[in-house]
Prior knowledge:
The complex is a heterodimer of chains A (about 110) and B (about 110).
Chain A: E1 5-7, E2 10-14, E3 19-24, E4 29-37, E5 44-49, E6 55-58, E7 61-65, E8 71-76, E9 85-93, E10 100-102, E11 106-111
Parallel strand pairs in A: 2-11
Antiparallel strand pairs in A: 1-3, 3-8, 4-5, 4-9, 6-7, 7-8, 9-10, 9-11
Chain B: E1 4-7, E2 10-13, E3 19-25, E4 31-38, E5 42-51, E6 54-57, E7 64-70, E8 73-78, E9 87-94, E10 103-104, E11 108-112
Parallel strand pairs in B: 2-11
Antiparallel strand pairs in B: 1-3, 3-8, 4-5, 4-9, 5-6, 7-8, 9-10, 9-11
Amino acid sequence: TQLLEQSPQFLSIQEGENLTVYCNSSSVFSSLQWYRQEPGEGPVLLVTVVTGGEVKKLKRLTFQFGDARKDSSLHITAAQTGDTGLYLCAGRMVSGTYKYIFGTGTRLKVLA
Amino acid sequence: DAGITQSPRHKVTETGTPVTLRCHQTENHRYMYWYRQDPGHGLRLIHYSYGVKDTDKGEVSDGYSVSRSKTEDFLLTLESATSSQTSVYFCAISDTSGANVLTFGAGSRLTVL
Lengths: 112, 113
């Protein structure tokens, strides 16, 4: 059973459209991260959110951590072909260890 | 580059043979992790280490063992490889500065025939 569920699993949109990816869990996390992965490479960190309700912006990407620290969302405004990739959320367990659990991933394809 | 190297990058082996994957870091980070990546599952934690000779199990540890005899090296061993262990394996490192950053290696693609 995956602790972190992402939706949608696949997303294909036209350039210029907006999209939102969701990351949900029944567990509470001390922090939540979003990574992006290109084919043949390891994931690369985009952002970390720590406080419940926190919102962070990275150019056209907006990240939000749920008030209860169990869920998060990634919103992309005016998607570009360069946004194509695999997006992964990851939660750091509250247990006090540095144990990170990843979501199931969302594969985004932005068409020109 | 963050100074994390995985070897081998590609390996094909037969069912029942032992396999060891190596992760080497030059960052002196305390935490090291092994994940496997399969379609539809994202990344799943196999084992992680929080110091030399200190390791703990992750979500999918059955059939895998790890060792960390020095800070810079974290070894993942499949004692008797099975076809279900065909996957891409990623090593990651993290320090305890509170930055909450996992830095990943380039991955090791393992095929078990």
